[in-house]
Specification:
CATH class of the largest domain: Alpha Beta
Strand content: 5-15%
Number of helices: 12
Order of helices and strands: EHEHEHHHHHEEEHEHHEHH
Structural class: alpha/beta
Number of domains: 2
Shape: globular
Number of strands: 8
Length: 311
């Protein structure tokens, strides 16, 4: 039998409008939010200040959903887990850790607040349970504040004015772009590949405390190895640690709603030529990655032999 889903999200500004090549303003994120936040489900939103809270509150009130909206304001969000944030910051400040990545411009490489906020998604879920905003026997779904980023998956004409209900398996439900394999985590961090998608995941509210603990443990393990990454790599590490806790389903970006109770939403058509080009670039990227790794090893070997004195 289908069950109503309680949705949780958050927004904490990290000055993204200043990220060259990755710019998005806070107001742009709020417009993304309004595209989907007319859903009739109960909505829990974690925010950094009352100004944002008033915007969210006013929007939900304007569509008659103020009584289905809970807002938690946490101005000192980066102080919740100082050890975690300082650990992430120490790695993103390390030039050698940054040089380990093939794609050095991506925010996962150098932005500590970004990685911290991504890691804290399940913390918000378990905190909502502790505050009594959602009961342990309910189903809780994470949705990114900027879900669908201006028609990434769904057309703007889609009707998000509906009550999302679905009978999910009684596990944490993750969604993957490709079949899981046994690639070493360091190789995935090196290439910034994505398996599991962090934009939407769903599970019993009673399991979010455990989810948070293994999320955090996974990030601390990366930190101890001189690495960090966003939540999508942490999700993969969690599945490998406790596979019985998770259900992993092959899907595509943001398709969780369409494939699980919201098939009325209008999908953005995919261009066959564009899809083929992206597949070609993906193959070339893997070849380039392998070549880059080989060149790195050759360079290290060369430096090693140069370290010996000449006679």
């Amino acid at each position: 039998m289908s069950k109503e889903i309680v949705i949780i999200t958050s927004f904490f500004s990290i000055n993204r409008e200043q990220w060259k090549g990755f710019q998005r303003s806070d107001q742009q994120y709020f417009e993304y939010f309004k595209d989907w936040a007319c859903m009739r489900n109960r909505l829990i939103v974690y925010l950094q200040n009352e100004e944002l809270a008033n915007e969210v509150r006013a929007y939900r009130e304007s569509i008659g959903l103020s009584d289905r909206t809970s807002i938690v304001v946490i101005p000192d969000f980066f102080d919740i887990d100082k050890e975690l944030f300082e650990g992430i910051n120490s790695i993103t400040s390390n030039s050698k850790s940054k040089l380990f990545r093939i794609k050095q411009r991506n925010p996962e490489v150098w932005n500590a607040p970004y990685n911290y906020i991504m890691t804290m998604k399940p913390w918000c879920g378990q905190d909502a349970v502790e505050r009594g905003l959602v009961s342990p026997d309910e189903t809780l779904a994470w949705m990114d504040f900027g879900f669908n980023h201006c028609e990434v998956t769904y057309l703007k004409e889609s009707n998000f004015d509906f009550l999302w209900e679905y009978d999910f398996p009684h596990k944490i439900n993750f969604y993957s772009l490709k079949p899981l394999d046994d690639r070493p985590i360091f190789d995935i961090v090196n290439t910034l590949d994505t398996y599991l998608m962090g934009s939407v995941f769903v599970g019993p509210a009673s399991m979010w405390k455990q989810l948070w603990l293994i999320y955090r443990e996974s990030m601390m393990e990366l930190i101890h190895c001189g690495l960090v990454d966003d939540d999508q790599t942490l999700m993969l590490m969690c599945v490998r640690k406790q596979p019985d806790m998770f259900t992993v389903t092959l899907s595509d970006w943001n398709m969780v709603l369409y494939e699980n109770g919201a098939s009325h939403l209008l999908l953005k058509p995919k261009k066959p030529a564009k899809t083929a080009i992206l597949a070609w670039f993906s193959r070339m990227n893997h070849k380039r990655r392998d070549m880059n790794i080989a060149l790195k090893y050759l360079a290290r070997l060369f430096r090693y032999y140069l370290s010996f004195p000449l006679h």
